[in-house]
UniProtKB/TrEMBL annotation:
Pfam family, one: Aminotran_3
Protein family: Belongs to the class-III pyridoxal-phosphate-dependent aminotransferase family.
Keywords: Pyridoxal phosphate
Native source species: Dyadobacter soli
Designated name of the protein: Glutamate-1-semialdehyde 2,1-aminomutase
InterPro entries: Aminotrans_3, Aminotrans_3_PPA_site, PyrdxlP-dep_Trfase, PyrdxlP-dep_Trfase_major, PyrdxlP-dep_Trfase_small
Keyword Membrane attributed: no
Known cofactor(s): pyridoxal 5'-phosphate
Top-level taxon: Bacteria
The keyword Transmembrane is assigned to this record: no
Gene Ontology molecular functions: pyridoxal phosphate binding; transaminase activity
PANTHER family associated with the record: GLUTAMATE-1-SEMIALDEHYDE 2,1-AMINOMUTASE, GLUTAMATE-1-SEMIALDEHYDE 2,1-AMINOMUTASE 1, CHLOROPLASTIC-RELATED
Length: 432
């Protein structure tokens, strides 16, 4: 058994001044409680009790180059010497935008923000302003940040409670939401193009945007069915609707051009955050000129004191430069698939009904009788308590996985890391 004594003591101290001791709701749900870390290096992270973990959380995704990548740290340190924030422009900001423009199919024009949540809201504003319509269509189980109008459809008491597929019930994730905010969106199960087609036929005159994670990574890790993204693309083009790809997870992870380059479907607007800058606070709303020109013309206002500060821009440029130089995506797919296969074998050997689904650079494990999941409703068949036991037991053995069963592969994970994770999983699966 690991000891978490020092973390437990720090948590007690933190709780006196930080609400429940943390700065983000998700950090509460670590094993066995919120933990305090001292440092991270490469594929490893260390807590205050001296425990070492092989890290597949990558801090919820951003650390595509692993912890403390030397080239990122060097770029941040050097560029920060010149200043931190100018309330004005600087050269590297153009270089970064030029780079994204070159790599990402939809990125004709962009603005930088601080995180995914606010970039999503900016995209909605652009879509409403351009189309003159009010609602956005979104999908059950997709996470688009924690703001009022997207704080729905991500938690639910049961699959029955969701009701009909045509007109699902939605449940708020939090109290304190303004009345009527749920009228801003229409929600549907994902991966069902016929249902989207029917809804757009009936209500397209109200819909300004369709927003989707191109791969659903926030509940399970589910690929779009063949033709689904193209179907959305066609419907949006035909009905004056903005297609928004929320690439907060898929961006830089599936390819340097994101899921849109990987699948060959170009949205009107897209959101990038997480892996863009190795853990520094920068995101981008990028899009086709005909949409983004509303910001250019100041018909849509986007602002932010802290946007595109020197350290964050330097971190993004350095991260992308390493990715371009090392071209790790093929390796990340290979290692991810090797780990997925190893976990499946370990589950078969130990007689566990563990489903391993995803693309390689990210994938999810769940305990479920279902053989393939297509949408959020399918994921609700999984045994969450058992997943909790698995993730906790892996943690005890020094392998850190995101609590909802999501695994991220970085450019610095090695074949040995993958073997360690497989051996550990087999041991753990035999115990739980
Ligand atoms: C797909 C997706 N969109 C948006 C967000 C919100 O991004 P942020 O946490 O940077 O505000 C997240 C965060 O996990 C996400 O996974």
């Amino acid at each position: 058994m690991k000891t978490y004594q020092k973390s437990a003591e720090l948590l007690e101290r933190a709780k006196k001044v930080l609400a429940s001791g943390v700065s983000s709701e998700f950090r509460k749900y670590n094993h066995p409680h919120a933990l305090f870390y001292t440092h991270g290096r490469g594929s490893r992270i260390y807590d205050v009790d001296g425990n070492e973990y092989l890290d597949f959380t990558l801090s919820q995704g951003p650390l595509i180059l692993g912890h403390s990548h030397p080239e990122v740290l060097k770029a941040v340190a050097e560029y920060s010497q010149e200043g931190q924030l100018f309330a004005g422009q600087h050269i590297k900001e153009i270089e970064l935008a030029e780079k994204l423009n070159q790599l990402i199919p939809s990125a004709e024009l962009m603005r930088f923000c601080l995180d995914g949540s606010e970039a999503v809201q900016t995209a909605f504003r652009v879509a409403r302003a351009k189309t003159g319509k009010q609602k956005f269509l979104r999908f059950e189980g997709h996470y688009h940040g924690w703001m009022d109008n997207v704080c729905w459809g991500i938690s639910t008491p049961s699959v029955e409670a969701l009701g009909s597929r045509e007109q699902p019930n939605v449940f708020p994730w939090t109290q304190g939401l303004p009345e009527g905010v749920e009228n801003e969106f229409i929600i549907l199960p994902w991966n069902d193009i016929e249902l989207v087609r029917k809804t757009v036929a009936e209500r397209g005159h109200e819909i300004a945007a369709i927003i989707t994670e191109p791969v659903m990574c926030n509940n399970g890790c589910i690929e779009p069915k063949p033709g689904f993204l193209q179907g959305l693309r066609d419907l949006c083009s035909e009905n004056d609707i903005a297609l928004i790809f929320d690439e907060v997870i898929t961006g830089f992870r599936l390819s340097l051009g994101g899921a849109q380059a990987y699948f060959g479907i170009t949205p009107d607007l897209s959101i990038f955050a997480k892996a863009i800058a190795s853990g520094y606070a920068i995101s981008a709303i990028a899009g086709k000129y005909e949409w983004m020109q509303l910001i250019e013309q100041a018909k849509v206002i986007h602002a932010g004191t802290m946007n595109a500060g020197n350290p964050t821009v330097a971190a993004a440029l350095a991260t992308i430069s390493v990715l371009e130089k090392e071209q790790p995506h093929e390796r990340m797919f290979r290692l991810g698939k090797m780990l997925m296969a190893g976990l499946q074998q370990a589950a078969a050997k130990t007689g566990q009904a563990m489903l391993v689904e995803g693309m390689g650079p990210m994938f999810a494990t769940s305990f479920t009788p279902i053989e393939k999941t297509n949408d959020y409703r399918d994921t609700l068949a999984a045994d969450k308590a058992k997943l909790g036991k698995f993730v906790a037991a892996m943690h005890e053995e020094g392998v850190r996985v995101i609590g909802r069963g999501l695994w991220y592969i970085s450019a610095v994970h090695t074949d040995e890391d993958i073997e360690t994770a497989i051996i550990t999983a087999e041991k753990v699966l035999a115990q739980i």
